[in-house]
Amino acid sequence: MKVAIVILNWNGKDLLEKFLPSVVKFSTQATVYIADNASTDASVSYVSEFFPTVKIIQNKVNGGYAKGYNDALKNLSEDIFVLLNSDVEVTENWLQPVISEFEKDASVVAAQPKILDYKNTEYFEYAGAAGGFIDKYGYPFCRGRIFNSLEKDLGQYNDVSQIFWASGACLFLKADAFRQAGRFDEDYFAHQEEIDLCWRLHSNGGKILCVGSSQVFHVGGATLAVLNPKKTFYNFRNSLLNLLKNANGSQAFVSILMRMLLDGLAAFQFLLQGRPKHFLAVLKAQISFYGFIPKFLKKRKIYASPVIYFKIKSVVFQYFILKKKHFGQL
Known about the structure:
Order of helices and strands: EHEHEHEEHEEEEEEEEHHEHHHH
Shape: globular
Oligomer: single chain
CATH topology of the largest domain: Spore Coat Polysaccharide Biosynthesis Protein SpsA, Chain A
């Protein structure tokens, strides 16, 4: 299988200086691309000068993660795309264990490695950890991470395991399955678009894996910091869009209403914590969601799926009421 590693970049020269060398060094069996989202810094000239083997795709606008990758991938011919954040340090032999799973099983359409915290390497990283799931109300959680509780890596997720969604920080995709599923939904702009994509991949009969024998280290928050209200906005809004678009049956609307109620409680929690910008971000997310309802009801007619998308009814209840902080306790 031919492999393309595609790193989306926007004004990330400092990150490329720090992390591109490991990608080039440990990815000799793949073609490495920088997909530049109309940067205004010296990113492109830096890569051209110091990494002549890395190919550059120049996007015309900064369309965020979703449009950026859609534009970058449309003309590539490789069999497997590896979408890699610019703030990820890869390790020796990180590619082959994952690629081998695609080669062994034709139903595998997406995968991720184990993602550890670059700043605290003994622990899992927030964005993906060892593979993701969602509950009935669309809240994402991971093997190795529930809300802000991160597990220490003790080898407990070194297996190959089926998951519901693979992290966009280091996302392996079978190119044909990606195209068949309709690529990324550009209405998301950023955050949780990989969950939407993985939902559609499942609907098409695909299998998604975390391959624990491969590991990378992710800084996280390099594009939008964890405490950035924009991140709060996109995560809250896009979770609602995921449910409206993909969850099947009339019960989906009950789940959406419950989710909006829980989000309202979260908004007031932000206010009590002295974080008014995040309080407003949640309110703006719900207002924005209302604006997308007519458009997403049309998408729902196409994409709503009978696939059972949750095993846990409420991770909020498990975490905050029952105090279950580790995935293995759920």
